[in-house]
Amino acid sequence: MAGTSLLALIDDIATLLDDVAVMSKVAVKKTAGVLGDDLALNAEQVTGVNADRELPVVWAVAKGSFINKLILVPAALAISYFLPAAIIPLLMLGGLFLCFEGCEKLAHKIFPDKKEDAERHVELVQAVANPAVDLVAFEKDKIKGAVRTDFILSAEIVVISLGTLADSTMTVRIATLSAIAIMMTVGVYGLVAAIVKLDDLGLGLLKSKGSGSQFKHSLGKGILLVAPILMKSLGIIGTAAMFMVGGGILVHGIPVVHHFTQDVAKSLEAVTYVGGFLAGLTSIVLEAGFGILCGTLALLIFIAVKKMKKPAAAKA
Question: What is the CA 31 to chain-centroid distance, rounded?
C-alpha cells in the first residue's frame, strides 16, 4: 500500500512537472518580445559605467529584478485566484502597452530629440571621464532606472504568462510562474553580463601574445566588430517581437479581428507548396500590423494628453 502510494505520488509529481514544462514553453514563446526588449534595454543600462563596474551594476539590477518578481508573482497568483475575470483585461492592457512602447521607440528613432540625446551623451562622458563626478551616485541612479524598467517588463511577462495558465490548476500556476520568473531573470541578466563584457573579451584577445596570437587577434577584431551590431540587432528584433506578441494578444482578445485574420490566413493555405508558410506569415504580419495600429493610437492619445497637461501646469 505504501509502495503504491509512493508510486502514485511520484506519478503526480511527474505529471505536474510535465504540465509545468509544457506551460513554461508556451509562456516563454508568448513573452519572447518582452524578453528581447528586456535584454536590449538592460544591456544599454550599463552604458557609461566604468568597465570594472559593469558586472557589479548588472548584478545589482538582477537582484532588483528578483525582488520585482517576488512582488509580482504572488500578486498575479492572488488575482488569478480571487479575481480570475481580471486576467483577460490585464492581458489586453499588457498587449496594448507592448505595442505602445514599441511605437514610442519607433517614434524616437524617426523623430529623435537631438537636444535630449546630446545632453545624455555629455552626462555619460562626464560621469566616466570626470573624477569629480560621484560615480557611486551615478551608478545608483542607473541601477534604480534599470530596476524600474525591469518592473514594467517583468509585469508584462507575468501577465502574459498568466494568460496562458488561465485553465491550469493553482499548483501548476504557482510552479510555472515561479520557474519562469527564475529562468527569465537568470537568463536575461546572464546574457546581459556576457554582452556588456564582449568588448573587454575582444580587447583581451587583441592584446594576447605567444602561440596562436594571430588567430586570437583576428577573433578579437571580429568580436569588437560584432558587439555593436549585436546590440543594435537586439533592439530591432526586440521591438519587432513586441509588435508581434502585443498585436497577437490584442487580436486574440477581439473576436471580430481574430476571425478576420484567421479567414485571410486560411484563404492562402490552398496555395501550392507554400500555402502553409504564407498563411503563417500573413497571420504574423496582420497581428503585428494591428499591434502597430493600436500602439500608434495609444501613443497619439498619450501625446495629446501630455500637451493638454502642460498649459494647465503653466497656469498653475
Answer: 7
Average pLDDT over residues 104-127: 71
What is the Cα–Cα distance from 316 to 311, expressed in whole angstroms? 9
Give, rounded to a whole angstrom, the gap between the first and last alpha carbons of the chain. 78
- Taking residues 282-292, what's their average pLDDT? 94
Distance from C-alpha of 163 to C-alpha of 248, rounded to nearest angstrom? 13
Which three cell numbers, joined as nine digits, stand for 126?
Answer: 562626464
pTM of the model: 0.68
For 33, the grid coordinates are 518580445
Are 57 and 142 in contact, with CB atoms under 8 Å apart? yes
C-alpha atoms less than 13 angstroms from C-alpha of 291 in its C-beta half-sphere: 33
Domain layout of the chain by residue ranges: 15-245
Q: Are 37 and 242 in contact (CB under 8 A)?
A: yes
Q: Give the C-alpha separation, 296 to 298, whole Å.
A: 5
pLDDT-derived band at 29, boundaries 50, 70, 90:
low
Tell the burial category of 175 from Cβ atoms under 10 Å away from its Cβ (0-12, 13-18, 19+): buried
Contact 165, 177 (CB under 8 A): yes
Tally Cβ neighbours within 10 Å of residue 201.
Answer: 15
pLDDT higher for 214 or 7? 214
Residue for grid cell 596562436: 212
Between CA 190 and CA 275 the distance in angstroms is 40
